[in-house]
Design brief:
Elements: H1 3-16, H2 19-29, H3 42-54, H4 57-60, H5 67-78, E1 82-84, H6 86-91, E2 102-104, H7 111-127, E3 130-134, E4 144-145, E5 150-151, H8 155-167, E6 170-171, E7 175-176, E8 179-184, H9 190-194, E9 206-212, H10 214-222, E10 225-229, E11 236-241, H11 242-256, E12 260-263, H12 264-269, E13 281-282, E14 289-290, E15 295-302, E16 307-308, E17 311-312, H13 314-334, H14 340-349, E18 352-357, H15 359-366, H16 373-401, H17 412-415, H18 431-437, E19 450-456, E20 459-464, H19 466-474, H20 480-489, H21 499-504, H22 513-524, E21 534-537, H23 543-556, E22 560-565, E23 613-621, E24 624-633, E25 636-643, H24 649-667, H25 672-679, H26 698-709, H27 715-718, E26 742-745, E27 748-751, E28 757-759
Parallel strand pairs: 2-3, 3-8, 8-9, 9-12, 15-18, 21-22
Antiparallel strand pairs: 1-15, 2-15, 4-5, 6-7, 10-11, 12-22, 13-14, 16-17, 19-20, 23-24, 24-25, 26-27, 27-28
């Protein structure tokens, strides 16, 4: 590539990349000096990756010139049609050269194996990968250890050791260690495992999932008992009622999203090399089932771009799929693996995981609602096409380079297809690479239609979904005030816009949980490995709602389920006794009765209604514009969201903390005049304005917004005039780096405002 050609590509790429994408690239992906100054541009990064990965062609054809392959790889990345997983973008062509995100390590029932796995995990984490473990082979707590005549401490105790080791390792200086821990449902310590993350301060570097069997699910459906077995010798150690265990899994998942469930028998049903071993674990986000010491290289096609003249552009999709398979197969050869055992297993099976992102964007571009039968049909069609084209591309590579070394021991022999790769397709979480590509993540619904991004002090930029912006402008509906309203409430459902727009432009929390599972199942039908998908629940969802989704997932054939109930990781459920409530009238006070111990309990509002109405007020503070949203239900004011829309700093964190504390007060019946009295008049070091409109601080601004909403004057020596009662629910979790909204996906969190991400 000539300097002039690279400059032209750089100019085109600069137009395609959003401000958020540029920020993410500069912060996490580009080569930098020790002081943090970028040493390369985005196009330099893509050129570095393309040139490095193309080198693998020479292993098979030393006489080949690489210009065409480099240009092909560079084109799909610069055009944002396909992007590989984060370690490949970060490390290809650099000293580390570790290109995989997914690893599974074995944990056998001996101290040597356990602490060997901890050592190996440290090396993987240091190189930028995440690790999955099955702890099912470890003997249960209090089991006899013959060599010492002592007793075993059990899997959960050793998981804590793994967790502490992970805490000390930084992945390549840019990624924190992440683990998946799986325990079979028939392990004697399963109850302790299910409860392992009930305390949210424990095992913070783990996602955990229960390894569910067909035998267990049959017992759940029949309400019968099932056997617990000691993995040391297979002996039965006891029996549990399957339904009670299932209910406990549901309850804990409802509380804070964990544990998830993985259907082990289904993972092994699709194990392409069953004679080489049994699949017992997955990578940290659950989409990649792997044998011990296997790794997998992932990449995703941007479906948002695979549209032409209002239809799917099948020719473009085919071209990109074939290029992606070639690219990912080359990654296997160019990878520098952290352990020799991983090198051997990975090259023996040559698994790749081609997936998608931008699925929700494709749907809105085509005018298809995410939660519709039409969308499910298109999911089958699109992923079925990608999967078949990936197989054809792998067959082409096999004719040129040979089948994967373990092909003779694989299920591909019976299928009569000579392929280069044991597996080809995976739907992974695409967090930061979807920010770079400027599209929705994986197969998730759109998280938010409008983001507010702070670009300078007191200057905010609205980032609007491009299809929504175009449609609104075509209909003459676009306005900045409407965009701010969308940003405040998260979507269109509660706004005065045409019904057909509400139907098509749905967000994650507009989609009923059952449709999340139906979409996951549709893609799973055409994926070799598994599908990373988070089923979103509103905060007011019940454990019964979670149970229905788990049973539907089992019925529809998915391989695992991850759920997240909005706000469930920000508040603890506190059972302080039964509180019976009634109202004297539609707006009357909530009555209070005694708890079980005869002590007086503060009143608690009934569960949140699915639809609330309210308004947003802008208050310009010395820290920037503060947006205070107040929603109401039939009892009066119910929710307050205070959003700085500001990148980092204490102001954003403080406004969220204030909102949560006000929330708690309102939930237990404190009237808003009491809140206003406490907040108004608080002064910080950067007051703004003069006279009665002066804003002394962010707390003062929130207090004044509430006072204005409910006409609460502050006469009579500071005593508020007017009284209401209002509780509140909690807002979506905030990014610890910039204060933006956190998106939960497949056991990971990602902030689209700044690119922060964290698994487990």
């Amino acid at each position: 590539m000539t300097v002039a050609g690279l400059s032209a590509l750089a100019a085109e790429l600069d137009k395609r990349l959003s401000p958020s994408a540029k920020k993410v690239l500069e912060k996490r992906y580009l080569k930098r000096t020790a002081e943090g100054t970028p040493l390369e541009s985005p196009v330099d990064m893509f050129a570095r990756v393309a040139e490095n990965i193309a080198q693998a062609d020479l292993f098979y054809h030393p006489e080949k010139t690489l210009e065409d392959t480099i240009a092909e790889f560079l084109s799909v990345m610069v055009n944002l049609e396909f992007l590989p997983n984060t370690p490949t973008l970060m490390n290809a062509g650099r000293e580390l050269q570790q290109l995989s995100a997914c690893f599974v390590l074995p944990v056998e029932d001996s101290m040597e194996s356990i602490f060997g796995a901890i050592r190996d995990a440290a090396l993987v984490h240091q190189s930028g990968g995440g690790t999955g473990f099955s702890f099912s082979r470890l003997r249960p707590k209090n089991d006899l250890v013959r060599s010492t005549m002592g007793v075993a401490s059990g899997p959960v105790s050793f998981m804590r050791v793994f967790d502490m080791a992970t805490e000390t390792i930084k992945q390549g200086g840019t990624r924190r260690g992440a683990n998946m821990g799986i325990l079979r449902v028939d392990h004697p310590d399963i109850i302790e495992f299910i409860r392992a993350k009930e305390d949210e301060h424990i095992l913070n570097n783990f996602n955990i999932s229960v390894g569910v069997t067909e035998e267990f699910m049959a017992a759940v459906l029949s309400g019968s008992d099932y056997a617990l077995r000691n993995p040391r010798d297979g002996s039965e150690t006891g029996r549990l009622n399957a339904r009670e265990v299932f209910d406990l899994i549901v309850e804990l998942a409802w509380k804070n999203g964990e544990p998830g469930i993985v259907f082990l028998d289904r993972l092994n049903r699709d194990n392409p090399t069953p004679t080489l071993g049994e699949i017992e674990s997955t990578n940290p986000c659950g989409e990649q089932p792997l044998l011990p010491y296997e790794s997998c290289n992932l990449g995703s096609i941007n479906l948002a771009l695979m549209i032409k003249d209002g239809e799917v552009d099948w020719e473009r999709l085919k071209r990109v799929a074939h290029t992606a398979v070639h690219f990912l197969d080359n990654v296997i050869d160019m990878n520098r693996y952290p352990l020799p055992q991983i090198d051997e297993m990975t090259k023996g099976n040559r698994k790749i995981g081609l997936g998608v992102m931008g699925w929700a964007d494709m749907l809105v571009e085509l005018g298809i609602p995410y939660d519709s039968d039409e969308a499910i049909r298109l999911a089958h069609q699109v992923m079925g096409f990608i999967h078949e084209e990936a197989i054809k591309a792998s067959e082409d590579l096999a004719r040129d380079r040979g089948v994967f070394p373990n092909w003779e021991a694989s299920t591909w022999v019976a299928k009569g297809r000579r392929v280069r790769n044991a597996t080809l397709t995976t739907i992974a979480p695409t967090g930061t690479i979807s920010i770079i590509a400027g599209c929705s993540s994986g197969i998730e619904p759109i998280f938010a239609l409008v983001f507010i991004r702070n670009v300078m002090d007191n200057t905010q930029l609205l980032e609007v979904h491009p299809v929504l912006e175009r449609v609104l402008k075509e209909r003459g509906l676009y306005s900045e005030s409407l965009m701010k309203s969308i940003a405040a409430v998260g979507g269109l459902r509660e706004l005065e816009v045409p019904e057909d727009l509400k139907r098509v432009f749905v967000t994650a929390h507009d989609v009923a949980p059952e449709w999340h599972i139906r979409m996951q199942a549709a893609f799973q039908d055409h994926v070799d490995n598994a599908v990373s998908k988070t089923v979103n629940f509103p905060n007011h969802a019940t454990p019964k709602d979670v149970e229905r989704v788990y049973l539907l997932a089992y019925e529809l054939g998915v391989k695992g389920v991850t759920i997240y109930r909005d706000g469930s990781r920000q508040e603890q459920v506190l059972n302080i006794g039964e509180v019976k409530r009634k109202s004297t009238d539609a707006k009357g006070p909530v009555q209070m009765q005694l708890g079980r111990e005869g002590t007086s309990l503060l009143p608690v509002r009934p569960s949140r209604s699915p639809v609330l109405h309210g308004e947003t007020r802008e208050k310009v503070t010395g820290c920037g514009s503060l947006y205070v949203t107040i929603n109401e239900d039939e009892f009066g004011p119910r929710e307050v969201f205070a959003n700085m829309g500001k990148a980092g700093g204490c102001a954003s964190a403080s406004t969220e903390a204030i909102g949560r504390l006000i929330s708690l007060a309102f939930r237990y019946g404190v009237p808003p005049d009491k809140i206003v009295k406490q907040l108004k008049g608080i002064r910080c070091h950067v007051p703004l304005g003069f006279g009665p409109n002066q804003i002394l601080s962010c707390p003062d601004a929130i207090g004044k917004a509430i006072a204005e909403k409910y006409h609460l004057g502050m006469g009579n020596g500071g005593k508020a005039v007017g009284q209401l009662e209002m509780p509140i629910t909690f807002a979506q979790g905030a990014c610890p780096e910039c204060g933006g909204a956190i998106e939960h996906e497949g056991g990971c969190m990602v902030c689209r405002s700044c690119g922060y991400s964290k698994c487990s």
